[in-house]
Amino acid sequence: MKTIIEPFKIKSVEPIKFTTRKEREKILKEAGYNPFMIHAEDVLIDLLTDSGTSAMSAKQWSGIMNGDESYAGSRSFFRFEKTVKKITGHKFIIPTHQGRASEKILFSIIGGKGKYIPNNTHFDTTRANIEFTGAEAVDFLNEIGKHPEQRADFKGNMDVDALEAFIKKTGKENIPLIMITITNNSGGGQPVSMQNIKDVRAVCDKYKIPLFLDACRFAENAYFIKTREKGYQDKSILEIVQEIFSYADGATMSAKKDALVNIGGFLSVNDENLATKCRNLLIVTEGFPTYGGLAGRDLEAIAQGLEEILDENYLHYRIRSTEYLGEKMINAGIPIIEPPGGHAIYIDAKRFLPHIPPYEYPGQSIVCEIYLEGGVRAVEIGSVMFGKYDKETGKLIPPPMELVRLAIPRRVYTQSHIDYVAEVLIETYNNRKNLKGCKIVYEAPMLRHFTAQFEPIK
Ligand code: F0G
């Protein structure tokens, strides 16, 4: 076996700035020990998110020059629409400025008080857009998906029995649709199998409930199906992707992930009546149906990106490069969600820092230390992000897991960047006994993780 190389050459480069540990200590202190508040320029390797951070190809950039900026009926829209239809097979394609705009439109129409939306695991914006309408977002992740240390091929799968029991209890009339998130971002970037999608579809058919996909990382999910699920080895990625979408009545998509662009999204639906309602709302909130909050050039870049993401050589490199980082960490004894996901590695901060309790934010301590150690930026997904306070005692109610996500931007970093990240993490892990917890000294009433200020505990 030869080394799996980056399937591209680099034509345009963006220098990154080196800082000393001393400088980083000052920067982190000024940022209130919250990496969200650090200027991106002061970050050496930025693994905060894989969303909107992809490097575009030469063909995407030429598409940018070629974009048709007509308000109505733009040529770029028709190229975009044709590509999305080829992939999804869905009848009505509605461009939006990003994933959450698609969610906002969809759930404003079908949500509302007394309604329930099941998912394997809702991403935060999906949950927020559902709950904003008064509806309830409910998760039905398979049991194995809840155990970071246990390995399985499809840890993003839905618990179909629990889903069906819920439908019986709640009444199908109160469930306007069922969603599946591929891959399951909040559950560690874990894939969903074709069999599971089919099984959920069967339940949808039985109760006449539409099935929608949260399709942000559909191609990465398809690659996992090709390499892990029986019967798919000889199918092309396009064929697998088309089969996935064929079971769904619609999808919400953030093009900032698997469409390899910096902004964009879409909503696809088969139901004409729903499409009309969505388009009418789109005109009020996003724009005319042939641009939906985007420039013509963005639509060109998305269409091109959607062609490129189906390249098996790219996906082979992509999934392997995430796994490569995961392997290095596992070999050093660092506890992560296993097996590595498609777009990110999730450190299990509880096992990394067993001496720091959730109310002293172990995940935050890790994100601060890896910045100090090597200028690497990651995000805490634990008590800072999802912790709630008990109304009576004022005590923190921690979420089930304390995680740190290292999300890998697409086509941005090379193998030596990733080797460097692994070195920083291993150094931090070897030094773990010296790490201290932190306390919050400022927090906003909502979504506190973005702006919270911390102080290290002495
Ligand atoms: N659904 C999933 C599964 C996502 O991961 C995201 C975004 C969205 C929906 C919303 O899309 O950002 O274009 O509005 N995830 C990013 C992340 C922000 O860092 O994981 P958006």
CATH architecture assignment of the largest domain? 3-Layer(aba) Sandwich
Task: Provide the residue-averaged pLDDT.
Answer: 96
CATH class of the largest domain: Alpha Beta
Helix residue percentage: 40-55%
Structure description:
The chain is α/β, with parallel strands linked by helices and 458 residues long. The chain folds into two domains: 21-50 and 311-456, Aspartate Aminotransferase, domain 1, CATH 3.90.1150; 58-308, Aspartate Aminotransferase, domain 2 (3-Layer(aba) Sandwich). The protein has 16 helices and 16 strands. A five-stranded mixed sheet has the order 2-8-7-6-5, sandwiched between helices. α4 (99-110) packs parallel to α5 (124-132) and α14 crosses α16. The mean pLDDT is 96. The site of ligand F0G has 15 residues, from α4 and α5.
Name the descriptors.
single chain; 458 residues; alpha/beta; Aspartate Aminotransferase, domain 1; Aspartate Aminotransferase, domain 2; 2 domains; 5-stranded mixed β-sheet; 3-stranded antiparallel β-sheet; 16 helices; 16 strands; 40% helix; binds ligand F0G
